[in-house]
Amino acid sequence: MDLSGKVAVVTGAGRGLGRAYAEALAAAGAAVIVNDVDGESAEEVVEAITAGGGAARSVVAPVGTAEVAERLVDRAVKEFGRLDVMVTNAGILRDRVLWKMSDDDFDAVIGVHLRGTFTCGRAAAVRMREQGSGGRLILVSSPAGQRGNFGQTNYAAAKAGVVAMARTWALELARAKITVNAVVPVAATEMTKTIPAFAPLIEEAERTGGALPRWLRRDEGLGTVEDVAGLVVFLASDAAAGVTGQAIGIGGDRLALWSHPREKAVAFAEGGWTAEALAASWHTGVGAVPETYGIPAPVVPEAG
Q: Which of 13, 115, 200, 252 has the fewest Cβ atoms nearer than 10 Å?
Protein backbone atom coordinates (compact mmCIF):
# COMPACT_ATOMS: atom_id res chain seq x y z
CA MET A 1 0.00 0.00 0.00
CA ASP A 2 1.66 3.20 -1.18
CA LEU A 3 -0.11 6.35 -0.01
CA SER A 4 2.71 8.70 -0.97
CA GLY A 5 1.37 12.12 -1.87
CA LYS A 6 -1.95 11.57 -0.09
CA VAL A 7 -3.11 13.63 2.86
CA ALA A 8 -5.33 12.28 5.63
CA VAL A 9 -7.18 13.64 8.65
CA VAL A 10 -7.83 11.26 11.55
CA THR A 11 -10.10 12.46 14.34
CA GLY A 12 -9.64 11.13 17.86
CA ALA A 13 -6.12 10.07 16.94
CA GLY A 14 -4.39 10.67 20.27
CA ARG A 15 -4.73 7.11 21.49
CA GLY A 16 -6.25 3.70 20.84
CA LEU A 17 -7.68 2.94 17.43
CA GLY A 18 -7.29 6.50 16.16
CA ARG A 19 -3.58 6.51 16.89
CA ALA A 20 -3.19 3.16 15.15
CA TYR A 21 -4.98 4.52 12.07
CA ALA A 22 -2.84 7.67 11.98
CA GLU A 23 0.43 5.80 12.38
CA ALA A 24 -0.49 3.16 9.81
CA LEU A 25 -1.51 5.78 7.24
CA ALA A 26 1.75 7.64 7.85
CA ALA A 27 3.78 4.43 7.57
CA ALA A 28 2.17 3.87 4.16
CA GLY A 29 3.35 7.31 3.06
CA ALA A 30 0.42 9.65 3.78
CA ALA A 31 0.81 12.99 5.52
CA VAL A 32 -1.52 13.06 8.51
CA ILE A 33 -3.44 15.65 10.51
CA VAL A 34 -3.72 14.19 14.02
CA ASN A 35 -6.80 15.47 15.82
CA ASP A 36 -7.61 14.97 19.50
CA VAL A 37 -8.96 16.91 22.49
CA ASP A 38 -5.82 15.98 24.45
CA GLY A 39 -3.00 18.14 23.12
CA GLU A 40 -0.27 16.14 24.82
CA SER A 41 -1.48 12.87 23.31
CA ALA A 42 -1.89 14.39 19.86
CA GLU A 43 1.62 15.83 19.94
CA GLU A 44 3.01 12.49 21.08
CA VAL A 45 1.52 10.84 18.00
CA VAL A 46 2.91 13.56 15.75
CA GLU A 47 6.36 13.09 17.25
CA ALA A 48 6.16 9.31 16.79
CA ILE A 49 5.21 9.73 13.13
CA THR A 50 7.90 12.30 12.38
CA ALA A 51 10.52 10.26 14.23
CA GLY A 52 9.72 7.43 11.83
CA GLY A 53 10.25 9.67 8.82
CA GLY A 54 6.61 10.61 8.27
CA ALA A 55 4.83 13.94 8.07
CA ALA A 56 2.18 14.97 10.61
CA ARG A 57 0.65 17.98 12.33
CA SER A 58 -1.78 18.18 15.23
CA VAL A 59 -5.08 19.99 15.68
CA VAL A 60 -6.35 20.04 19.25
CA ALA A 61 -10.12 20.46 19.24
CA PRO A 62 -13.32 18.52 20.01
CA VAL A 63 -15.15 17.42 16.86
CA GLY A 64 -18.82 18.16 16.43
CA THR A 65 -19.10 21.71 15.16
CA ALA A 66 -18.79 22.85 11.57
CA GLU A 67 -16.07 25.26 12.68
CA VAL A 68 -13.81 22.46 13.95
CA ALA A 69 -14.46 20.32 10.88
CA GLU A 70 -13.49 23.15 8.55
CA ARG A 71 -10.44 23.88 10.70
CA LEU A 72 -9.24 20.29 10.24
CA VAL A 73 -9.66 20.43 6.47
CA ASP A 74 -8.07 23.88 6.24
CA ARG A 75 -5.05 22.72 8.25
CA ALA A 76 -4.55 19.75 5.94
CA VAL A 77 -4.65 22.02 2.90
CA LYS A 78 -2.43 24.68 4.45
CA GLU A 79 0.24 22.22 5.63
CA PHE A 80 0.17 19.65 2.84
CA GLY A 81 -1.70 21.20 -0.08
CA ARG A 82 -4.74 18.95 -0.31
CA LEU A 83 -7.04 16.43 1.40
CA ASP A 84 -7.53 12.86 0.21
CA VAL A 85 -8.72 10.88 3.24
CA MET A 86 -11.00 11.71 6.16
CA VAL A 87 -11.21 9.15 8.98
CA THR A 88 -13.96 10.03 11.47
CA ASN A 89 -12.88 8.10 14.53
CA ALA A 90 -13.37 10.44 17.50
CA GLY A 91 -15.73 9.13 20.16
CA ILE A 92 -16.80 9.16 23.79
CA LEU A 93 -18.96 6.96 25.99
CA ARG A 94 -21.69 7.92 28.45
CA ASP A 95 -23.18 4.49 29.18
CA ARG A 96 -26.44 4.32 31.11
CA VAL A 97 -29.55 2.16 30.91
CA LEU A 98 -32.48 3.94 29.29
CA TRP A 99 -34.25 5.01 32.48
CA LYS A 100 -31.04 6.50 33.90
CA MET A 101 -29.69 8.17 30.76
CA SER A 102 -29.87 11.96 30.95
CA ASP A 103 -30.35 14.37 28.07
CA ASP A 104 -26.72 15.44 28.52
CA ASP A 105 -25.52 11.81 28.32
CA PHE A 106 -27.43 11.36 25.08
CA ASP A 107 -26.52 14.68 23.49
CA ALA A 108 -22.80 14.42 24.30
CA VAL A 109 -22.39 11.06 22.55
CA ILE A 110 -24.57 12.01 19.58
CA GLY A 111 -22.66 15.28 19.26
CA VAL A 112 -19.24 13.65 18.98
CA HIS A 113 -20.02 10.44 17.11
CA LEU A 114 -22.90 11.38 14.82
CA ARG A 115 -22.69 15.14 14.41
CA GLY A 116 -18.88 14.96 14.42
CA THR A 117 -18.99 12.45 11.58
CA PHE A 118 -21.51 14.58 9.69
CA THR A 119 -19.61 17.86 9.97
CA CYS A 120 -16.21 16.32 9.21
CA GLY A 121 -17.61 14.29 6.34
CA ARG A 122 -19.34 17.33 4.87
CA ALA A 123 -16.25 19.56 5.13
CA ALA A 124 -14.10 16.85 3.55
CA ALA A 125 -16.59 16.23 0.74
CA VAL A 126 -16.70 19.93 -0.13
CA ARG A 127 -12.91 20.07 -0.41
CA MET A 128 -12.57 16.78 -2.30
CA ARG A 129 -15.21 17.83 -4.84
CA GLU A 130 -13.39 21.12 -5.37
CA GLN A 131 -10.12 19.24 -5.96
CA GLY A 132 -11.82 17.06 -8.55
CA SER A 133 -9.61 14.02 -8.01
CA GLY A 134 -11.79 11.86 -5.80
CA GLY A 135 -11.17 10.91 -2.20
CA ARG A 136 -11.96 8.62 0.68
CA LEU A 137 -14.36 9.03 3.59
CA ILE A 138 -13.76 6.30 6.17
CA LEU A 139 -16.39 6.43 8.90
CA VAL A 140 -15.91 4.46 12.11
CA SER A 141 -18.97 2.59 13.38
CA SER A 142 -19.32 -0.23 15.94
CA PRO A 143 -20.97 -3.64 16.43
CA ALA A 144 -23.25 -1.82 18.90
CA GLY A 145 -24.66 0.14 15.98
CA GLN A 146 -25.30 -3.06 14.03
CA ARG A 147 -26.83 -5.13 16.83
CA GLY A 148 -27.54 -2.86 19.82
CA ASN A 149 -25.86 -3.17 23.22
CA PHE A 150 -27.10 -2.99 26.79
CA GLY A 151 -26.65 0.44 28.33
CA GLN A 152 -25.65 2.12 25.07
CA THR A 153 -28.76 3.81 23.69
CA ASN A 154 -26.79 6.90 22.69
CA TYR A 155 -23.73 5.12 21.33
CA ALA A 156 -25.68 2.44 19.42
CA ALA A 157 -27.97 5.04 17.87
CA ALA A 158 -25.02 7.18 16.78
CA LYS A 159 -23.08 4.27 15.32
CA ALA A 160 -26.13 2.97 13.44
CA GLY A 161 -26.51 6.46 12.02
CA VAL A 162 -22.88 6.47 10.92
CA VAL A 163 -23.48 3.40 8.74
CA ALA A 164 -26.64 4.96 7.30
CA MET A 165 -24.64 8.06 6.39
CA ALA A 166 -21.97 5.93 4.71
CA ARG A 167 -24.59 4.31 2.45
CA THR A 168 -26.23 7.65 1.66
CA TRP A 169 -22.98 9.50 0.97
CA ALA A 170 -21.74 6.64 -1.22
CA LEU A 171 -24.69 7.40 -3.51
CA GLU A 172 -24.28 11.16 -3.38
CA LEU A 173 -20.51 11.25 -3.92
CA ALA A 174 -20.13 8.49 -6.52
CA ARG A 175 -19.91 10.90 -9.47
CA ALA A 176 -17.09 12.75 -7.71
CA LYS A 177 -15.21 9.45 -7.32
CA ILE A 178 -15.29 9.77 -3.54
CA THR A 179 -15.78 6.43 -1.84
CA VAL A 180 -17.49 6.17 1.53
CA ASN A 181 -17.29 3.15 3.80
CA ALA A 182 -17.96 2.34 7.44
CA VAL A 183 -15.40 0.40 9.46
CA VAL A 184 -16.84 -1.75 12.25
CA PRO A 185 -13.81 -2.43 14.47
CA VAL A 186 -13.37 -4.64 17.51
CA ALA A 187 -10.14 -4.16 19.46
CA ALA A 188 -8.75 -4.14 22.97
CA THR A 189 -8.99 -0.47 24.00
CA GLU A 190 -9.95 1.55 27.04
CA MET A 191 -13.45 1.79 25.59
CA THR A 192 -13.67 -1.98 25.07
CA LYS A 193 -12.74 -2.50 28.70
CA THR A 194 -16.08 -0.98 29.66
CA ILE A 195 -17.81 -4.05 28.16
CA PRO A 196 -18.11 -6.55 31.07
CA ALA A 197 -17.70 -9.62 28.86
CA PHE A 198 -14.37 -8.45 27.42
CA ALA A 199 -12.82 -6.52 30.32
CA PRO A 200 -11.30 -9.44 32.31
CA LEU A 201 -9.82 -11.03 29.18
CA ILE A 202 -8.14 -7.79 28.09
CA GLU A 203 -6.89 -7.02 31.58
CA GLU A 204 -5.42 -10.50 31.95
CA ALA A 205 -3.50 -10.15 28.67
CA GLU A 206 -2.19 -6.75 29.76
CA ARG A 207 -1.25 -8.02 33.23
CA THR A 208 0.70 -11.00 31.92
CA GLY A 209 2.08 -9.28 28.83
CA GLY A 210 0.71 -12.12 26.73
CA ALA A 211 -1.35 -12.19 23.56
CA LEU A 212 -5.10 -12.49 23.55
CA PRO A 213 -6.26 -16.13 23.25
CA ARG A 214 -6.51 -17.55 19.75
CA TRP A 215 -10.22 -18.32 20.19
CA LEU A 216 -10.87 -14.69 21.13
CA ARG A 217 -9.01 -13.39 18.07
CA ARG A 218 -10.83 -15.78 15.72
CA ASP A 219 -14.27 -16.48 17.14
CA GLU A 220 -14.92 -13.07 18.67
CA GLY A 221 -12.71 -11.06 16.33
CA LEU A 222 -11.06 -9.20 19.19
CA GLY A 223 -7.41 -8.27 18.85
CA THR A 224 -5.11 -5.27 19.04
CA VAL A 225 -5.67 -1.83 17.56
CA GLU A 226 -2.94 -2.61 15.03
CA ASP A 227 -5.04 -5.51 13.74
CA VAL A 228 -7.68 -3.01 12.61
CA ALA A 229 -5.43 -0.39 11.02
CA GLY A 230 -4.71 -2.36 7.85
CA LEU A 231 -8.34 -2.02 6.75
CA VAL A 232 -8.17 1.77 7.00
CA VAL A 233 -4.97 1.85 4.94
CA PHE A 234 -6.55 -0.41 2.32
CA LEU A 235 -9.69 1.73 2.08
CA ALA A 236 -7.51 4.84 1.73
CA SER A 237 -5.55 3.31 -1.15
CA ASP A 238 -6.08 3.14 -4.90
CA ALA A 239 -6.70 -0.59 -4.51
CA ALA A 240 -10.05 0.23 -2.88
CA ALA A 241 -11.26 2.61 -5.62
CA GLY A 242 -14.23 0.32 -6.33
CA VAL A 243 -15.22 -0.28 -2.71
CA THR A 244 -17.97 2.03 -1.47
CA GLY A 245 -21.18 1.99 0.56
CA GLN A 246 -20.00 -0.95 2.66
CA ALA A 247 -19.90 -1.71 6.39
CA ILE A 248 -16.79 -3.80 6.99
CA GLY A 249 -16.00 -5.50 10.28
CA ILE A 250 -12.47 -6.28 11.41
CA GLY A 251 -10.75 -7.36 14.59
CA GLY A 252 -8.16 -9.91 15.63
CA ASP A 253 -7.97 -12.52 12.86
CA ARG A 254 -11.50 -11.83 11.63
CA LEU A 255 -12.65 -9.82 8.60
CA ALA A 256 -16.35 -9.57 7.80
CA LEU A 257 -18.77 -7.79 5.48
CA TRP A 258 -21.93 -6.73 7.32
CA SER A 259 -25.16 -7.19 5.40
CA HIS A 260 -27.36 -4.22 4.68
CA PRO A 261 -30.83 -4.29 6.30
CA ARG A 262 -33.31 -6.00 4.01
CA GLU A 263 -36.66 -7.73 4.18
CA LYS A 264 -36.18 -11.18 5.67
CA ALA A 265 -39.72 -12.54 5.26
CA VAL A 266 -42.76 -11.19 3.41
CA ALA A 267 -46.45 -12.13 3.46
CA PHE A 268 -49.52 -10.64 1.77
CA ALA A 269 -53.13 -10.18 2.82
CA GLU A 270 -55.70 -9.08 0.29
CA GLY A 271 -57.05 -5.72 1.40
CA GLY A 272 -54.37 -5.23 4.07
CA TRP A 273 -53.53 -6.56 7.51
CA THR A 274 -55.83 -6.27 10.51
CA ALA A 275 -54.55 -6.68 14.07
CA GLU A 276 -56.48 -9.95 14.31
CA ALA A 277 -54.94 -11.30 11.11
CA LEU A 278 -51.48 -10.38 12.37
CA ALA A 279 -52.10 -12.14 15.68
CA ALA A 280 -53.32 -15.27 13.92
CA SER A 281 -50.38 -15.54 11.53
CA TRP A 282 -47.39 -13.85 13.12
CA HIS A 283 -45.77 -16.81 14.91
CA THR A 284 -46.16 -19.18 11.96
CA GLY A 285 -45.60 -16.62 9.21
CA VAL A 286 -43.36 -13.57 8.94
CA GLY A 287 -42.40 -13.72 12.62
CA ALA A 288 -41.68 -17.46 12.75
CA VAL A 289 -37.90 -16.92 12.95
CA PRO A 290 -37.32 -13.54 14.65
CA GLU A 291 -34.05 -11.67 14.34
CA THR A 292 -31.53 -11.79 17.17
CA TYR A 293 -30.42 -8.58 18.88
CA GLY A 294 -27.59 -7.44 21.12
CA ILE A 295 -23.89 -8.26 20.99
CA PRO A 296 -23.50 -11.91 22.04
CA ALA A 297 -21.37 -12.58 25.10
CA PRO A 298 -18.07 -14.37 24.37
CA VAL A 299 -18.27 -18.15 24.51
CA VAL A 300 -15.16 -19.31 26.34
CA PRO A 301 -13.96 -22.72 25.09
CA GLU A 302 -13.79 -25.46 27.67
CA ALA A 303 -10.30 -26.32 28.86
CA GLY A 304 -8.70 -29.35 27.28
A: 200
pLDDT digits (tens, 9 = 90+) for 4-35: 999 999 999 999 999 999 999 999 999 999 99
Residue numbers of the domain that contains 121: 7-257
pLDDT at 207: 77
CATH number at residue 195: 3.40.50.720
Is residue 249 assigned to a domain?
yes
Catalytic residue among 155, 169, 198, 234: 155
Question: How many domains does the chain contain in total?
Answer: 1
Q: What pTM did the predictor assign?
A: 0.94
Residues with Cβ within 8 Å of 185's Cβ and at least 6 positions away in sequence, in order, are: 17, 140, 142, 228, 231, 249, 250, 251
Residues of the chain with pLDDT under 50: none
CA dihedral 283, 259, 11, 92 (to 10 degrees): 20
Residue 155 designated active-site: yes
